[in-house]
Amino acid sequence: MEKIYNYINGDLVKPKEDAWLENYNPAIGEVYSFIPDSDGQDVDSAYKAAQEAFPLWSKKTLKERSDVLQKIADLIIKNLDELSLAESIDNGKPLALAKKVDIPRAATNMSFFATAILHENSDTHQMNQLAINYTLRKPIGVVGCISPWNLPLYLFTWKIAPALAAGNTVVAKPSEVTPMTAYLFSKICQEAGLPKGVLNIVHGLGPKVGEPITKHANIKAISFTGGTETGRKIAAIAAPMFKKLSLELGGKNPNIVFADCDLDKAVSTSVLSSFSNQGQICLCGSRIFIERKIYQDFKNKFLDKVQNLTIGDPLENTTKIGALVSNDHMQKVLNHIQIANDDGGVLLSGGKQYAPEGRCENGYFVEPTVFEGLSYNCATNQEEIFGPVVTLTPFDNEDEVINYANSTKYGLSATVWTKDLNKANRMSHLLQSGIVWVNCWLVRDLRTPFGGVKESGVGREGGAYALNFFTETTNVCISYD
Ligand code: TXE
Q: Could you tell me what percent of the chain has a pLDDT over 70?
């Protein structure tokens, strides 16, 4: 059985305790590899390597840093098939999705920030004849990047690309649930000639590896994506240490469908925003609010498409719904479905664990599930399920649907379907959300601010927002006289 290794100081190494964790293939419900069960000792080794690498890496020219990040991007594309298969096996997502979205986006993350630093401008402020100020942006030093299991390489590179491009060195921790592509990425970094110690990847459990990163006195910034409760723990440690914090947390996103929308486009996109990646995307629109006069029409069209989604072996090209990432997560989702039933929800589709015939019969599959008839403030409509479960709820006017949409503790993204742009702008202004998509979903320009409000997070990733997070500023004021 394959063992994967930490990537520290440019080498692939065992954890110091030589302890290992089982890594499951969720589509078949079996262990298929072992990952390091690292601890604080390994984090210390990683920090030391990053600290030693920082002076040279931060002094490289922008072009030198850009070139090596671009080389990594090129190697990701060159290894697209191997990385896509690894991602699908590790996460349970359809291979086609990994190949179309996850892995290409990981390459794009690297190349986007490789070029962003070449075109970054900085500020000056002139004080008439008195003086001129210029804003100096400097890398922070050694930073920590902690990423989740839903879009493993996509979100891992979304953090380390700007961190490295800005001249920092990194101690990174991918999710222990989906470590494989980060491991393969380590080898790509070696091949690309990334100097040793610039990036260090420590595999293992949150409390044993993530927490030592968060607690480390000399790791000055933490960029985290994951659950709100974990984000709360990280903030409790990092805030009193005055560390910079970027937290991308959970979501419970409203998908608002007005009667004056392009109904067919709203329906087909809503199927994607409901069930892509088995609903395991923080941006999924799991609360669908439909204006009453088109409720039945939307519901019939939506259900027709949902019931035609192919669920099963992620390696089959026709599969749209793969396995959930783990047995624990599947049980969590099934528990939420039970709660929805107990709350009087009317089950319109799905609702059960699914056992495909053949090699995936013991996999962690849940049918795409649709409920109606639940109140907007019941648990199912308030808590993040992070699985293939959505609710349909009618509304009669804008005030009512804004109240529904803003009623949760989250505020990550929202989708609005209407041809009336005055209404779209009105809604965008009133929605408590970091991102609003109008007549589309998951259309992404990497220069835009990405992040949420309320318990969906703190700070913004993307473009200059990410580069600003991973740098400190000094204002230099030079007198004329
Ligand atoms: O996240 P966790 P998980 C939500 C979703 C999911 C829940 C938990 O609801 O069910 O979060 O998912 C590391 N100190 N999202 O288990 O536990 C952990 O090892 C430092 C939304 O993936 O937060 C992993 O590398 N690190 C999210 C990373 O944190 C710790 C995407 C995320 O793990 C730690 C994924 C600690 N104490 C899940 N405990 C989104 N917004 O996209 C764990 N970790």
A: 100
Domains identified in the chain, total number: 2
Task: Read off the pLDDT band of 481 (50, 70, 90).
Answer: confident
Give 48's contacts (C-beta < 8 A, 6+ positions apart): 9
The full DSSP string for 358-392 is: GGGTTS-EE--EEEES--TTSHHHHS---SSEEEE
Cβ of residue 384 lying under 6 Å from some atom of ligand 1: yes
Any atom of ligand 1 within 6 Å of the Cβ of 200: no
357 lies in which domain range? 254-447
Q: Does 223 lie in the same domain as 144?
A: yes
- Give per-residue pLDDT as tens, 66-124: 999 999 999 999 999 999 999 999 999 999 999 999 999 999 999 999 999 999 999 99
pLDDT for the residue numbered 310: 98
- Do 166 and 30 belong together in one domain? yes
CA 249 → CA 149, 458, 459, distances in Å? 13, 8, 11
CA 424 to CA 421: how far, in whole Å? Answer: 5
Residue numbers annotated as active site: 248, 282
pLDDT in tens, 135-171: 999 999 999 999 999 999 999 999 999 999 999 999 9
Query: Using CA atoms, how far apart are residues 382 and 455, in angstroms rounded to an integer?
Result: 12
| CA-228 nearest atom, ligand 1 | 11
Q: Give the integer Cα–Cα distance in Å for 19 and 17.
A: 5
- Residue 210 contacts residue 223 (beta carbons within 8 Å): no
Ligand 1 center–CA 34 separation, angstroms: 20
pLDDT at 128 (0 to 100):
84
Beta strand 389-395 with 435-438 is: unpaired
Report the C-alpha gap between 395 and 381 in whole angstroms.
15
Whether residues 139 and 272 share a domain: the answer is no
Percent helix / strand / coil, the chain, rounded to 5: 45, 25, 35
Q: Which atom of ligand 1 is nearest to 281's Cα?
A: 42
At residue 129, the pLDDT reads 83
Q: Is the CB of 248 under 6 A from ligand 1?
A: yes
Do both 182 and 54 map to the same domain? Answer: yes
Q: Are 261 and 344 members of one domain?
A: yes
Residue 76 belongs to domain with CATH number: 3.40.605.10
Q: What is the CA radius of gyration of the chain?
A: 23
Alpha helices of 198-242 — where are they, by DSSP H?
Answer: 211-215, 228-238
Distance 175 CA to ligand 1 centre (A): 8
Residue whose CA is at the smallest distance from ligand 1 atom 19: 206
**Residue 211: pLDDT over 80:** yes
Q: Is the CB of 227 under 6 A from ligand 1?
A: yes
Ligand 1 atom at shortest distance from the alpha carbon of 412: 41
Structural tokens at position 339: 């709660």
In the DSSP assignment, the letter for residue 195 is P
